[in-house]
Amino acid sequence: MRLMSWTVVAVPLFAVSALVALPAAAEKSGAEKPAKGGPGSVGKKIALAPEGLKFGMSLEAIAKLYDKTFDQEYLPLYKKAAPGPETEALDAEIKQRKAEVRRSKVDFNNTPTGVDQTALKGEYSYANGESMARLTLRSGTERYFFFFNDRLWKVYDEHKLKKGSPLGENYADAIKVLTTKYGSPPKKMPANPEKGQFFDESMWTTPDMVIRAVDRDSTLAMVYADRDVQEDLPKKRRNHPKDETAMDPDVASALKKNEPPPGPNKDKGGASDKKGGSKGAPKK
After folding, report:
1. How far apart are alpha carbons 183 and 198 in whole angstroms?
2. Which of 61, 86, 108, 162 would be 81's cystine partner, CB 3.0–4.6 Å?
3. DSSP summary character for residue 119
4. Mean pLDDT throughout 272-281?
5. 46 pairs with which residues across the strands?
6. Which sequence spans correspond to the domains of the chain?
7. For residue 257, what pLDDT band results from cuts at 50, 70 and 90?
8. Is the separation of the CB atoms in 42 and 203 below 8 Å?
């Protein structure tokens, strides 16, 4: 099975089901009671899935965790496969699966990447030690891992919304499901492109995590971020590479100087009043 690039949705042959886990994070403890503290406040902690996935992990540590997950997923297939071509095909497939997350790494250094042309724009910055990797889960969910200096701080899952899916048919349905799950209505965050937020979002905050539900029409993005890192982003993203598409300040200043002066202000002088006299004329 040929490894597909990170920009292409690649659903493994053994995972034809369109169902997704709800949510892509499992509860650690605590009953589902309304949280105190207003909309978006969740009093209980949420654990990332699969078990063992946690913030601060390196890319290689995540890859090794999924190596074990893939071994477990393929075990039933190996038991059914006949020795020879069938087992060899499974060997090749699982090898590719284990290599996927390792080969998908993208470093956000000083050079723009193709990720800027995707819906993920705004989830990272350049020249601040950030990187990203991706993996297609057995459910078909596209999962993206975001790092600061090779330490995981954010997980971004893309779920397809359609009739019959656990998250519902549309964004409104998904928010209802998630509100029940987290025990609190979210904090609404309308899109604000000037601040790098290109979609409407709903947000929940747990003691150690910031969870965002991003409205991407037929796709729901569930984003799980380390709260300490999320709240400290301005300090971590000190570098702001020059926008190559922006106009040079000197050129902009020169163009401004060459602009013709504004026309006469009819309200302050130079224009005749209703009685035919000039407002700027001295009185006799």
Report:
1. 27
2. 86
3. T
4. 46
5. 27
6. 28-58+104-236
7. low
8. no
- In percent, how much of the chain has pLDDT > 90? 67
pLDDT at 280: 46
230 token code pair: 């999320």
- Residue 41 phi/psi, 5° resolution? -90, 125
Beta pairing class for 209-216 and 142-148: unpaired
Most confident range (mean pLDDT) of 9-13, 137-141, 207-211, 246-250 is 207-211
What does the pLDDT read at residue 254? 61
Q: Return the bridge partners of 145, or none.
A: 133, 155
Tokens 């971004």 — which residue? 156
What average pLDDT does the segment 17-44 reach? 55
The distance of Cα 170 from the centroid of its chain, to the nearest Å, equals 18
End-to-end CA distance of the chain: give it in Å, rounded: 96
pTM: 0.74
Residue 278 DSSP code = B
Please tell me the distance from the alpha carbon of residue 214 to that of residue 123, in angstroms, as a whole number.
Answer: 12
Of the candidates 135, 131, 160, 161, which has an alpha carbon nearest to the alpha carbon of residue 147? 131
Other CB atoms within a 10 A radius of the CB of residue 20 amount to 22
Strands (E), 104-249: 106-108, 130-136, 142-148, 151-160, 187-189, 201-205, 209-216, 219-226
Mean pLDDT of 65-84: 92
One-letter amino acid at 81 equals A
Q: 243: pLDDT confidence band, cut at 50, 70 and 90? A: low
d(CA 104, CA 126): 18
Beta strands in the chain (DSSP E): 25-27, 46-48, 106-108, 130-136, 142-148, 151-160, 187-189, 201-205, 209-216, 219-226
